[in-house]
């Protein structure tokens, strides 16, 4: 018995113990997917699978194109990854390349997202003085928390942004504690977030502003903090030049279709209706939030400024995410909110991070917190039991959500006439004499992305400025389906598409008429897209509302080559980004080596 106890103690004290805990919890959370050998098809699955399939094929074939989607999205040459988490897209593409099929990929990528979330929260807690055991507990709660788990059950990329967001708050909370800006920590944290999910980075920056203001007011070295802040901004811009530099270039020279305007923002808030308490903030998570709020309010005078500031910011963003805010009225007054914010529930990621952090700090520093204090029984065992109860109920809610998605996918695999559980999605598998079972389980990953299509029009080029006022009249989803998807099957013989080693795309088709005819080709054109038809550079005869090109095709065989001109400006952008990351990593390694040498 003593040997067993000593072995358990060794494992618990091991530096790999957190990985063991988080890994086991992740496998348990995903057990339904693993045991049923299936995946979940949800709101954004098809969109992100196409992004990752494109980068996987780029890596496999060595035909790289940072801008054009030459493999995904039916090889239309549209821009997606360059504007949407480019680095993560290539990492996910590499993982997809190593995965046997889409099922394995979804399980692996979901587990990795959960592990990143757990370790980033664990690290944030440790930096803020939370004990090791409570840090592991907070990491465990966060990895299965609603803000991260939306990736697992819905493939919403906000879940991936939530997984890395605690890394940014490490530098921000250190700044609050020490009243000076850790330039590298803040810059790297924000850069990682921007490279992952721009919307999440904007939310995190908004949450950091009041913390920065408090730090600036309290510090005695105000000018040094301002100077360090400016250095951190410049360094962050350099580390993310490939994101914002490319965005400026593309948006400056093109009209792009934005994300759809959410006309009922009030419905997508933290509230007590079914969808919200199942997937946005679950009841036991809300209880944690309320407990921390109660604790901070009742002990306000005794608490230090760090806890007060973090608690206030967390509470403020919790309110922002709820239907307490008159979002219906605000979206009428400020229509831009319908595309910029879309879903107020996104703000809830900040309370998840800060309230879980505060709970860890409270439990570490107050032995009477979350105990049977009225009975004079400050037992840690009771605290752990309470937290386990919260964890178990959250896990149960996650199981229910996963099982719903699993049951829908199993039904698809068993019945090829099943309805796809995704809005604006269409099935074309019967055109290729394939089944849903083959789409999901085949090692040929092209089956799924070519058979099940979602008509997401985000970032497609258009001939006019599209906003919340005229979005519906442009009909982006309908036009995408008609002009870039269905149109592939309309012409005799169809279009044959081939990706070249230089990253360009060649489209071949036949004009079976005896005269030159106009053909709408299922590729899109941006201002920097270069079109070469039958060896001659051309301008399209017409551009559709979703950027599809119409060209004059000669009788017989026609060959159209589509490429994207980058130029010197883009070369500078990628060079600055690469050198900035190399410089940062080099500096960190040299500094660690010097510190290690001085400690010997």
TrEMBL record:
Keywords: Membrane, Transmembrane, Transmembrane helix. It comes from the Bacteria. The chain crosses the membrane at residues 16-35, 79-98, 103-124, 136-153, 160-177, 197-218, 230-251, 280-297, 309-327, 347-365, 377-395, 572-590. This is Cell division protein. It comes from Apilactobacillus waqarii.
């Amino acid at each position: 018995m003593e040997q067993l106890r000593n072995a358990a103690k060794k494992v618990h004290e091991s530096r790999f113990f957190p990985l063991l805990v988080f890994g086991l919890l992740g496998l348990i959370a995903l057990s339904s997917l693993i045991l049923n050998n299936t995946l979940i098809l949800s709101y954004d699955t098809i969109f992100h699978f196409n992004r990752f399939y494109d980068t996987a094929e780029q890596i496999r074939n060595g035909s790289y194109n940072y801008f054009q989607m030459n493999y995904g999205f039916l090889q239309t040459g549209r821009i997606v990854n360059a504007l949407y988490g480019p680095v993560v897209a290539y990492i996910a593409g590499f993982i997809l390349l190593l995965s046997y099929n889409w099922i394995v990929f979804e399980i692996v990528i979901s587990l990795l997202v959960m592990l990143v979330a757990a370790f980033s929260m664990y690290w944030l807690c440790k930096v803020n003085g939370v004990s090791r055991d409570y840090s592991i507990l907070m990491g465990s709660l966060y990895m299965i928390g609603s803000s991260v788990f939306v990736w697992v059950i819905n493939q919403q990329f906000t879940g991936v942004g939530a997984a890395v967001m605690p890394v940014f708050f490490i530098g921000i909370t250190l700044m609050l504690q020490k009243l000076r800006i850790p330039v590298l920590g803040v810059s790297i944290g924000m850069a990682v977030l921007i490279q992952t999910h721009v919307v999440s980075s904007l939310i995190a920056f908004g949450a950091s502003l009041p913390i920065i203001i408090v730090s600036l007011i309290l510090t005695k070295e105000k000018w040094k903090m301002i100077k360090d802040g400016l250095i951190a901004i410049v360094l962050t811009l350099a580390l993310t030049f490939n994101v914002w530099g490319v965005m400026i270039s593309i948006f400056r020279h093109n009209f792009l279709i934005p994300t759809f305007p959410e006309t009922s923002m009030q419905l997508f808030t933290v509230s007590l209706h079914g969808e919200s308490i199942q997937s946005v903030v679950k009841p036991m998570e809300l209880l944690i939030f309320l407990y921390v709020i109660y604790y901070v309010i009742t002990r306000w005078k005794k608490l230090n400024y760090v806890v007060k500031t973090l608690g206030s910011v967390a509470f403020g963003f919790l309110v922002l995410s709820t239907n307490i805010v008159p979002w219906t009225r605000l979206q009428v007054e400020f229509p831009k909110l319908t595309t910029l914010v879309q879903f107020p529930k996104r703000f809830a990621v900040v309370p998840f991070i800060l309230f879980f952090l505060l709970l860890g700090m409270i439990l570490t520093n107050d032995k009477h917190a979350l105990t049977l204090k009225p009975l004079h029984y400050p037992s840690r065992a009771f605290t752990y039991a309470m937290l386990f109860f919260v964890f178990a109920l959250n896990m149960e809610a996650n199981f229910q959500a996963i099982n719903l998605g699993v049951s829908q996918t199993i039904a698809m695999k068993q019945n090829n006439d099943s309805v796809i559980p995704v809005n604006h999605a269409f099935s074309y598998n019967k055109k290729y004499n394939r089944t849903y079972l083959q789409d999901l389980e085949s090692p040929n990953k092209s089956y799924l992305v070519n058979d099940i299509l979602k008509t997401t029009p985000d970032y497609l080029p258009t001939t006019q400025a599209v906003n919340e006022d005229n979005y519906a009249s442009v009909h982006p989803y309908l036009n995408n389906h008609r002009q870039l998807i269905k149109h592939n099957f309309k012409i005799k013989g169809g279009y044959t598409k081939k990706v070249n080693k230089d990253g360009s795309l060649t489209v071949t088709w036949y004009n079976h008429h005896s005269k030159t005819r106009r053909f709408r080709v299922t590729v899109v054109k941006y201002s920097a897209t270069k079109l070469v038809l039958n060896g001659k550079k051309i301008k399209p005869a017409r551009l559709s509302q979703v950027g599809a090109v119409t060209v004059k095709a000669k009788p017989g065989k026609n060959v159209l080559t589509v490429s994207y001109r980058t130029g010197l400006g883009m070369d500078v952008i990628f060079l600055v980004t690469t050198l900035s990351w190399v410089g940062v990593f080099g500096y960190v390694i040299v500094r660690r080596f010097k510190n290690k040498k001085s400690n010997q």
